[in-house]
């Protein structure tokens, strides 16, 4: 069942990237990183739009 030559950090799913195919592993990490950074970017944009619509009231201007 368990392959001895497989690196422990590499996922064991069938069809997933293996250490024997380093290019596939690189593509896998690149796509994962791209999805992650896109999500962060979109969340930041969303927060900027929310802050424009509803300005945050600080304690100094509430009297």
Helix content: 40-55%
Mean pLDDT reading: 71
Overall spatial form: rod-shaped
How much of the sequence lies in strands comes to under 5%
Brief write-up:
This protein is an all-alpha fold. The chain is 51% helix and 0% strand. The longest helix has 32 residues, at 22-53.
Task: Give a structural overview.
The structure is a single chain. With 63 residues, the chain is mainly α. The chain has a domain at 22-51. Helix content is 51%, strand content 0%. The chain contains one helix and no strands. It is rod-shaped and about 65 Å long. The model has no long low-confidence stretch (mean pLDDT 71).
Name some characteristics of this structure.
single chain; 63 residues; mainly alpha; 1 helix; rod-shaped
